[in-house]
UniProtKB/TrEMBL annotation:
Residues 191-319 form the B12-binding domain. It comes from Cymbomonas tetramitiformis. GO terms for biological process: propionate metabolic process, methylmalonyl pathway. Its cofactor is adenosylcob(III)alamin. The lineage of its organism: Eukaryota, Viridiplantae, Chlorophyta, Pyramimonadophyceae, Pyramimonadales. Belongs to the methylmalonyl-CoA mutase family. This is B12-binding domain-containing protein. One of its GO terms (molecular function) is metal ion binding.
């Protein structure tokens, strides 16, 4: 039971992996001296985007415009009616009717749609019917967003203390990294500040949060960006937060497209001197491409956070 109890304490499993007490073959023990390259499939993101845009264009050109307008307005009317039933009052949602978003040519007779005559319209039913009439997912979600509910924006915060407790603050590499953070602070006049960013459609944020927590426990000031940011949004946040470093977490193979765009966005925003690093699942054959596009450090699976922190500190700008 002692082993189980040790794993149940906060950070127990993390400590087990980091200290090599819990053996993970190929990660913290029995690693090969020379790793064999793994075959990876490269997807042309630009070609996929072009294909998807073309499909949307064909759908919009081929669908029945009258039925589409009728169905979309029915959806909006039913949605607005639902909001009124929930006491939306005088706000945008409470005032919204089909006439506010009619797509033209039908006189907004959609208010007579059977679906919108129910006292409590079923929004899922309306959405399914809208899809049958070839409304796109974006158009359906826009109806919800502009109809009064808005769009959910998650807020991320850094939790401090978890990584340090799991690893043990008396560990030599922890102490060494924290000492280098203090040296940087003395030289720069402030603590090193890093923005951890997730771009594109990559929604795997657990690793990014672990890294953010670990760096915070080592003495970094850490900002976490929301999911699904564009490179331009990351650059603006980097400017607003006045960071020394932007750390990109890549778990879904978007780095070949997004990282060069981010480097350009940082340069356009006047912060091209900011250190750009990336971590996550990145094929070895992509490393040189990323270095050539302005990446200063690359951290793959199994990287120890204190080691990553020290490598970053060695390259951080002092201003």
């Amino acid at each position: 039971m002692g082993d189980v109890e040790e794993l149940l304490v906060p950070g127990g499993m993390t400590h087990g992996r980091e200290s090599a007490w819990q053996v993970i073959v190929g990660v913290n023990k029995f690693r090969l001296d020379k790793e064999e390259p793994l075959a990876t499939r490269s997807i042309d993101n630009a070609a996929v985007l072009q294909q998807q845009v073309e499909q949307l264009r064909r759908i919009r050109e081929s669908r029945d415009g009258v039925l589409f307008s009728f169905c979309r307005c029915s959806y909006l009317a039913g949605f607005a009616q639902t909001l009124r039933g929930q006491g939306a009052g005088g706000g945008l949602g409470g005032r919204l009717g089909a006439e506010d978003h009619c797509m033209g040519g039908f006189g907004c007779a959609a208010k007579a749609a059977p679906m919108s005559q129910k006292e409590s319209p079923n929004l899922l039913e309306l959405a399914v019917e809208a899809a049958r009439r070839r409304c796109t997912v974006g158009e359906i979600s826009d109806a919800l967003e502009f109809g009064g509910w808005g769009r959910y924006v998650p807020t991320d915060s850094v939790i401090s203390g978890v990584y340090g407790q799991a690893y043990g603050e008396d560990a030599a590499d922890i102490q060494s990294a924290m000492a280098e953070v203090r040296v940087f602070e003395e030289r720069a006049g402030r603590r090193p500040r890093v923005l951890v960013a997730k771009m594109g459609q990559d929604g795997h944020d657990r690793g990014a949060k672990v890294i953010a927590t670990g760096l915070a426990d080592l003495g970094f000031d850490v900002d976490i960006g929301p999911l699904f940011q564009t490179p331009e949004e990351v650059a603006r946040q980097a400017v607003d937060a006045d960071v020394h470093c932007v750390g990109v977490s890549s778990q879904a193979a978007g780095h070949r497209t997004l990282v060069p765009q981010l480097r350009k966005a940082l340069q356009d925003a006047g912060v091209g001197h900011v250190l750009l690093v990336i971590g996550g699942v990145i094929p070895q054959e992509d490393y040189q491409f990323l270095y050539d596009n302005g990446v200063g450090c690359i951290f793959g699976p199994g990287t120890r956070i204190p080691a990553a922190a020290k490598e970053m500190l060695a390259k951080l700008p002092l201003n």
